[in-house]
């Protein structure tokens, strides 16, 4: 996080971990992950937040390789106040996350205020505890 200049990480349950068709297993997994996530946030409140799947206005996570095609395509569909930078840590190695952050900072697909919104402003607005 520090190497990529990420101030706060939002913890969430990856979609790939949700068992299909098993409501009881989904509920148990969500409770376990929320409990563990809450413990991490409690221990490190300045570094971590917890993202609930139930939150209204859930933004678009810009993770993976959003440039050169995915981010411009997304911005054709939604306003720049919806995407959030997502490093996909720990699944994405730190050097790759740093390179992605750098490419987003340097892209011409976004104006400077929209880059600031993507990298921290949208998260601060959505997760008021981060202000």
TrEMBL record:
Q: Which domain of life is it from?
A: Bacteria
Boundaries of every Amidohydrolase-related domain copy: 58-128
Cell membrane as UniProt keyword: no
Residues annotated as region Disordered? 82-112
How far does the signal peptide extend, from start to end residue?
Answer: none
Give UniProt keywords alphabetically.
Answer: Lyase
Pfam annotation, one family: Amidohydro_2
Q: What is this protein called?
A: Amidohydrolase family protein
From which organism does this entry originate? Streptomyces broussonetiae
């Amino acid at each position: 996080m520090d190497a990529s200049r990420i101030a706060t990480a939002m913890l969430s349950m990856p979609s790939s971990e949700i068992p299909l068709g098993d409501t009881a297993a989904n509920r148990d997994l969500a409770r376990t992950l929320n409990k563990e996530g809450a413990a991490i946030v409690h221990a490190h409140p300045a570094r971590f937040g917890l993202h609930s799947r139930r939150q209204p206005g859930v933004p678009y996570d810009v993770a993976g390789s959003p440039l050169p095609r995915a981010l411009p395509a997304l911005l054709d569909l939604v306003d720049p106040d919806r995407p959030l930078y997502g490093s996909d840590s720990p699944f994405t190695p730190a050097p790759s996350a740093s390179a992605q952050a750098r490419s987003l900072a340097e892209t011409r697909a976004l104006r400077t205020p929209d880059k600031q919104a993507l990298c921290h402003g949208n998260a601060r607005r959505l997760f008021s505890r981060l202000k």
